């Protein structure tokens, strides 16, 4: 209900341009209020479940060996943090994601831009890439290990492949869907191809490009787990495997929480870094 | 001087949007193209702006045959088409990339004053009303000092009050450099308010039905009798243009008669 009210308010601000200025102040306060309520509501379920479980274990209603209570997970987490282990593993994972993300995103942007802006290149590139996309990325693992060895290179390659496809598709699609009407504005002012790309296409695709990068980053974190499963001595994925082999569910859950925090932090960082580029359309972003 | 010689446009799907248009627009003249939808008005403006290629005939600007977008031709579309990532100021300055910074600043500021949006210079287009956006779009076309300005039903989406004030803004800008203006409209009052000549068009295929000079002195009094008379004359012409499809042009009828005779 809160959500529908909020979108009604935003929708109003969009459609009645005449009143947009007058509405601006009340709209933002109203939005903030609705937003706060939603956040609190969202916390309710996980906190309630955590408390219930904690209570159940404390009062002996449940054993909590396979599903440790929150207090034990937090204790494990802080123990890992104190020995410094947590940071070593988190940093290793982050580094792999970062390198894989950069490689995958850069090649996705380049190939996506090529295939989005030239019909010939699209016909040349797209069928091959679409065919490769149909292969589940994990299926590459044995090949990557044969080609690149069992150490970092094969892991980074897997992550890069995971990041590449959403970025490639997002960028190519964004370029193809740029409003012809805005392109015509550029044509009327006789922009060259390069100027058109820089002054119209690039800014027009930025919002979708950011979304593509975000989903790429999300997949990067998904694939780093897979990569670290295939034999690593460091990384949060190693903590997972180790926790399973040693029968330490609290360590597994601690690693999962670390993954969640790391992923969210990385995503927020990406959003913050790209925010100035797409500020002009932050109304839409707030609804994402 | 802007002239069309036997200008025709047939789209790829076979639609005959324009057929044998012949018209001369004098320097500094404001010509209103009037006609129902589908008369090819937008098509005609797109040909002049160089966004589409004619199928036959040619367009000349001061003797030069136009092929593609020309620096002396500006256009205001039916929608504002502002670039959402540029501020109001930068939108107006969009066509001034080749002009030095000081000159650009001066021209844009002057245009902002003319359209009454100085205090909105740094806002995003999304924060403007529809009427304000269309004013920015008009300013964007004017700052490059075009010799020919094309307007495609620029005020059709606006309410009557906003429209009247935009007519004043438009005439205010026009007075300064007096460009040749081709204004597409389906609003007869608007045509009589702004234009020196009304050209009534007919659809299927798009062609010129009639031309009516509007010689009222400026500024025009919308409540006066001469204004009313002009409005009525255009309405009458429009009326005839709608009935005309039944009474085919003489030449066509002769040809059909000949075909029958054979
Ligand atoms: N890109 C196009 N392809 C095919 N037919 C078109 C295209 N644009 C316009 N038309 C057709 O050409 C005719 C004239 O259109 P238009 O110039 O938009 O008329 P107006 O602006 O007077 O309403 C219409 O029948 C329309 O359907
Ligand atoms: Mg039209």
UniProtKB/TrEMBL annotation, chain A:
CDD domains: TM_PBP2 (cd06261)
Subcellular location: Cell membrane
Any matching Pfam family: BPD_transp_1
Membrane topology according to the record: Multi-pass membrane protein
Listed SUPFAM superfamilies: MetI-like
Keyword set, alphabetical order: Cell membrane, Membrane, Transmembrane, Transmembrane helix, Transport
Membrane-spanning residues: 39-62, 94-114, 134-151, 157-179, 200-232, 252-278
Positions of the ABC transmembrane type-1 domain: 90-271
Family, as annotated: Belongs to the binding-protein-dependent transport system permease family.
Protein name: ABC transporter permease
UniProtKB/TrEMBL annotation, chain B:
InterPro entries: AAA+_ATPase (IPR003593), ABC_transporter-like_ATP-bd (IPR003439), ABC_transporter-like_CS (IPR017871), ABC_transporter_ATP-bind (IPR050166), P-loop_NTPase (IPR027417)
Chain ranges of the ABC transporter domain: 2-228
PROSITE patterns attached to this UniProt entry: ABC_TRANSPORTER_1 (PS00211), ABC_TRANSPORTER_2 (PS50893)
Keyword Calcium: no
SUPFAM superfamilies linked to this entry: P-loop containing nucleoside triphosphate hydrolases (SSF52540)
Keyword set, alphabetical order: ATP-binding, Nucleotide-binding, Transport
Any one GO molecular-function label of the UniProt entry: ATP binding
Pfam families: ABC_tran
Domain of life: Bacteria
UniProt record similarity statement: Belongs to the ABC transporter superfamily.
Name of the protein in question: ABC transporter ATP-binding protein
Source lineage: Bacteria, Pseudomonadati, Pseudomonadota, Alphaproteobacteria, Hyphomicrobiales
């Amino acid at each position: 209900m809160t959500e529908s009210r909020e979108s009604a308010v935003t929708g109003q601000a969009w459609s009645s341009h005449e009143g947009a200025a007058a509405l601006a102040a009340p709209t933002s306060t109203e939005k903030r209020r609705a937003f706060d309520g939603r956040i609190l509501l969202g916390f309710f379920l996980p906190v309630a479940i955590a408390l219930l479980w904690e209570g159940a274990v404390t009062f002996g209603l449940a054993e909590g060996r396979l599903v440790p209570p929150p207090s034990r997970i937090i204790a494990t987490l802080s123990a890992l943090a104190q020995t410094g282990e947590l940071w070593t593993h988190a940093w290793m994972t982050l580094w792999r994601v970062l390198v894989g993300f950069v490689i995958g995103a850069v090649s996705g942007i380049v190939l996506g831009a090529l295939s989005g802006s030239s019909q010939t290149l699209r016909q040349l590139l797209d069928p091959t890439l679409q065919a490769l996309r149909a292969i589940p990325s994990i299926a590459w693992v044995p090949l990557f290990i044969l080609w690149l060895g069992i150490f970092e290179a094969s892991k980074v390659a897997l992550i890069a492949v995971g990041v590449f496809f959403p970025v490639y598709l997002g960028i190519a699609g964004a370029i193809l869907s740029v409003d012809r009407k805005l392109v015509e504005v550029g044509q009327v002012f006789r922009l060259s191809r390069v100027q058109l790309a820089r002054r119209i296409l690039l800014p027009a695709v930025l919002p979708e490009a950011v979304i593509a990068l975000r989903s790429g980053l999300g997949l990067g974190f998904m694939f780093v787990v897979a990569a670290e499963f295939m034999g690593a001595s460091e990384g949060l994925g190693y903590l997972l495997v180790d926790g399973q082999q040693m029968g330490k569910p609290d360590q597994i859950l601690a690693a999962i929480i670390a993954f969640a925090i790391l992923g969210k932090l990385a995503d927020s960082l990406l959003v913050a870094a790209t925010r100035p580029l797409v500020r002009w359309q932050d109304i839409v972003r707030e609804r994402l | 001087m802007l002239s069309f010689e036997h200008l025709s446009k047939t789209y790829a799907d076979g639609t005959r949007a324009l057929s044998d248009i012949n018209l001369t627009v004098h320097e500094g003249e404001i010509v209103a193209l009037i006609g129902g939808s589908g008369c090819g008005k937008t098509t005609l403006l797109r040909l002049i702006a160089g966004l589409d290629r004619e199928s036959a005939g040619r367009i000349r600007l001061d003797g030069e045959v136009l092929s593609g977008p020309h620096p002396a031709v500006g256009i205001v579309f039916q929608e504002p088409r502002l670039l959402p990532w540029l501020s109001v100021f930068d939108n107006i300055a969009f066509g001034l990339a080749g002009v030095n910074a000081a000159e650009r600043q001066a021209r844009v500021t002057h245009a902002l004053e003319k359209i009454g949006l100085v205090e909105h210079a740094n806002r995003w287009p999304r924060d403007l009303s529809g009427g304000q956006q269309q004013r920015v779009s008009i300013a964007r076309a004017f700052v490059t000092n075009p010799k020919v300005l094309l307007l495609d039903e620029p005020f059709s989406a606006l309410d009557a009050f906003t429209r009247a004030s935009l007519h004043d803004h438009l005439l205010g800008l026009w007075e300064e450099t007096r460009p040749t203006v081709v204004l597409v409209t389906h609003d007869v009052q608007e045509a009589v308010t702004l234009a020196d000549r009304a050209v009534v068009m007919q659809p299927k295929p798009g062609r010129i039905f009639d031309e009516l000079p509007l010689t009222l002195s400026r500024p025009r009094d919308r409540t006066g009798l001469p204004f009313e008379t002009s409005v009525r004359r255009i309405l009458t012409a429009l009326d005839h243009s709608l009935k005309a499809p039944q009474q085919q042009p003489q030449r066509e009828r002769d040809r059909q008669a000949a075909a029958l005779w054979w």
